[in-house]
Structures are given as structure tokens and as C-alpha cells.
Amino acid sequence: MTALIGPTPARAGDDNPETPAEPPKVELVLDVSGSMRARDIDGRSRISVAQQAFNEVVDALPDETQLGIRVLGATYKGDDKKQGCLDTQQIVPVGPVDRTQAKAAVATLRPTGFTPVGLALRSAAQDLGTGSTARRIVLITDGEDTCAPPDPCEVARELAAQGTKLVVDTLGLAPDEKVRRQLLCIAAATGGTYTAAQSADELTGRIKQLVDRARDTYTAAPTVVGGSAECDKAPLLGPGVYTDREAFSEHRWYRVPVRPGQELRASVSVALDRPVNRDYGVLLRATAPDGRELVRGVDAGSGRTDVVSAGLRWSAAEEEAAEEESASPSPTGTVTAQTVCLVVSNSFAPRPGTEATPGMPVELTIDVVAASPAPAGPDLGRGWALLLLLTLAGLVTGLLAGLLTRWWVATWREN
């Protein structure tokens, strides 16, 4: 058996190698404060649009997902701010969903009181509990918190610092700059996303995306990693899922050891959690430490998606001929792995007034597997044989087509 020379790469999830099988857990937090009466979304009130979206999401909910619903500003009708700022309740407990009960609970909501967003977030985190897998909160609101303290952004930072693997995604229903900044801050603190939803279809589609994302990613909460400005100082990574943040038009480097006979597979996704100009792209490249480009994978968007992704594959066998001497086993039975540099680049440009910090959420997936054998290409002899075969096939096809055409013309004239 051979051993690997060089430092041991970090592996995602090393801090918790035995992840128990847990169902994905999501809590929807809905603002039911007085401002939700406004009728400015497709000519309908904000609350009616939110109720319709909730009903459609509940109907489409995957069976394995455990869902809870919490509201804020839904019951207190008075003017006592101290009492109104305590107004948050969980109307559907986190667990397997009774669809009829959940839709009935949402249908009875009427816009009423204050907007204690910070308190609702803290309570929602308690509703979801703790565990080894990621939990998600989806906050839907049309206004900024009117009850601070606690400040919702500070609450989000507090929850993130607890290491509970809690992600808060925010949806804004009003085109208000203060609201946007607050919701962006909440999302950024927990690695979530912010989206402005200004139609019923946008709101419904986005909530469904976020619930589905919870189902797809809850088993592997990404490991936080910090990319470098150059390959030499980049973190050494093993197979796994990692999360980072990248500024506009930035390049972030990572390193992956790949042994002879192995294939590197990598993908990156950048979440557009704030307004950006159209015509952008994400580039993922693999290079050698000396700067030679090995392979690249690029994907571009047009402003219609919330995530832009790119991926690549590269086999160490492609370098084996050039590195045969250094890659061969030594007398001690060791094999030198080649270090591959991965660089994530983006061409995003912020719209006027968009905050540049913190960077946009980046999710990097790395896998190293046994190299797939490339299909054997024909050598020169087989190439000539193939060319001759194709030529004969073309002649036979042409003759048959000519005979059939002449027969058809003769038959047509007789008739």
C-alpha cells in the first residue's frame, strides 16, 4: 500500500464524521403587521399574496421535510408598543405537516400590529432546535423591525456565532431601501440569501426554491473556508462541500491534492443575494502551481436566476506522461500527489447603491475519484478503415436513393 506525501488536506465535516440521518427542517416566519394590508402586489394586498404563496408551498412540500410556521404582529391590536413588541407565535409546530391544518391556520391571519423581527428570529431558532444538520428560516416581511432591541441583524449574528448551522433566507415584499439593507444584513450574517419579491409568482417560486434547497443540502452543512488571493497561500482541501464569500470581480484560490490515477471533479455556485447588473459570469479554473491552466469550466447568466454555477473535471492521468518520474512510487512505497490550484472568479458588478460587503455566498463542492478511462481513439490504420467504410456506405446510399428517385419519377409520369 502506498502513502501520500504532503500535508493532510482539510475535509468537510471532519468535526462531525458521523452525521445522523435527520429530516430537513424549515420554519417560515411571516410578517402580519399592519403594513401587510397595503394593496401593491398585482393589485392585491401583501397578506393575501403571502397566504396564496404559503398554500402553494404547503401543497408542494416534500413528504420528508418538516415545516413550521411562525408569525409576528398577528394578534395585538393595541397601541402599547411594549406589549405589541412581544407579539410572535408559532401557529404550526415544526414537524410532519398536516396540510389542511397548516393552510387553515394561515387563512385566518389578518394584518394587525407591530413588527418584532428580531424576537421572531430568536424564537424561530428555538423552534427548530439544534442538531448536526442545517436548519433554515425563511423570513417574509414588508418592513423593517419596529421593536429593536433586539436588533434583527444582531440576532442573526448571535445565532451564527452559536454554531447551530442555522441559515436565514429573507424575502422583502416592499421596495424600501432600509428594509433591503436590514434583510441583506440578516441573510449575510447566517450565509443565507436576500430576494425582493414584487409579484405573487416571484414570492411563491422563491419560497419553493428555498424549501427545496433545505431538502437538498440539510445533510451536509458546508464547512466554512477562506480562499486566498494566490495559490501558494490557499487552503488545502479534500472532498466535501465548502462555503466562502467572494467580493465583486474577485479571484479566490484553493488547493486540492490529486494522485496519479485520480480525477478531480469540482463545482462552484455563487448566490446573487443582492441586485447586480446583467451580463455576468462565473469562471472556475484548475491550474498547476506554476500557473499553467489545466482545464476551465464557465457558465454565465442573464439576470434571471438567483444562483450561477460552473463545474469542471480533470484527470491526473493527463499529466502522468510528463510527471512519470516524480509521480512513480519511491522505494518507501510513497506516491507524490500533484497539487491542483482551483480559482473561482466572477464578473459581477453591483447596481448603484448596492453594498459590496460582505462578499456574495459561494458554495464549492470538491470530489476526487478514480479516473475514468478515456474512450480509445482509432489509430491511423483504423482511421483509414473507418474512412473507407463511411465512403462505401455513402456510395451505396447514393445509388439506392438514385434508383428510388428514378422509379418514383417513372411511376408519376405513367399516372
From TrEMBL:
UniProt keywords, alphabetically: Membrane, Transmembrane, Transmembrane helix
Pfam annotation, one family: VWA_3
Span of domain VWFA: 25-214
Residue ranges of the region described as Disordered: 1-24
Chain segments annotated as transmembrane: 384-409
PROSITE patterns in the cross-refs: VWFA (PS50234)
Protein name: Ca-activated chloride channel family protein
Organism field: Micromonospora viridifaciens
